[in-house]
Each structure stands twice: as C-alpha cells, then as structure tokens.
Design brief:
121 residues, alpha+beta, 5 strands, elongated, Ribosomal_bS16_dom_sf, Small ribosomal subunit protein bS16, structural constituent of ribosome, ribonucleoprotein
Length: 121
C-alpha cells in the first residue's frame, strides 16, 4: 500500500480548512484516510502558531513507515525542520504562455511600425 502524507480539504466555499492526513494514495483527496496528523488553516496570518499544527511524533512514525509527503506537506515539514530542504528549480514557471508571447510580438510590431512612420515624416 502506497502511503501519502497529504492535505484533505474541509471548510465551506471560499473558506478553506485542511487536515493533514495519512492516506492510501489510491483514495480520493477528501475520502478515506488512515490517520489525521494535523491541521492547516490558510486563512490565518503566516506568523500565527494556529496556522499549521502537526503531531510531529506521528508524522515521524509515518515517514519511517514509508509514507511520502506531497509537495505542499513536504514544504511544511521543511519549515518545521523535520525534512531536509530540497532544491527546487522550475525555470519555465515565470515564462509567459504561447498566446501571451504572440500578443507581445504583435504589440512590438505595432510599436515598430508607429516609430517607423514618425521617423518617415
């Protein structure tokens, strides 16, 4: 059984609240889980102690059993000092999409035409 440490969403519409759970990776996001090991409330300020609460003893136990944290949970565990910080590199993230590039090229062409007309006058 492939275990995951992941977030299960709760709360109402536009008011998210998450439980940090240990679940079988084949189960749905908000479906059946094995154990709840913490909570995460993104609506609280980042410096609030109530924002992320985890039972680190149980987290360590499940990591020892082979549970793999998702990216978001691993970032929380890195911030808590449980996991070593991984180097992440996504150079394409800040790059605009294909349509945005086309629009930028069209705009540059229009500006070039306008400046050529002004110099011709």
């Amino acid at each position: 059984m492939a275990l995951k440490l992941r977030l299960a969403r709760g709360g109402s519409k536009k008011r998210p609240f998450y439980r940090v759970v240990v679940a079988d990776s084949r189960m749905p996001r908000d479906g059946r889980f094995i154990e709840k090991v913490g909570t995460y409330n993104p609506l609280l300020p980042k410096d609030s102690e109530e924002r992320i609460k985890m039972d680190m003893e149980r987290v360590q136990h499940w990591l020892g059993q082979g549970a793999q944290p998702t990216d978001r949970v691993s970032r929380m565990l890195e911030a808590a000092g449980v996991l070593t910080k991984k180097e992440r590199n996504n150079p394409k993230k800040g790059e605009p999409g294909a349509k945005a590039k086309e629009r930028a090229e069209e705009k540059a062409a229009k500006v070039a035409e306008a400046s050529a007309e002004e110099t011709a006058e």
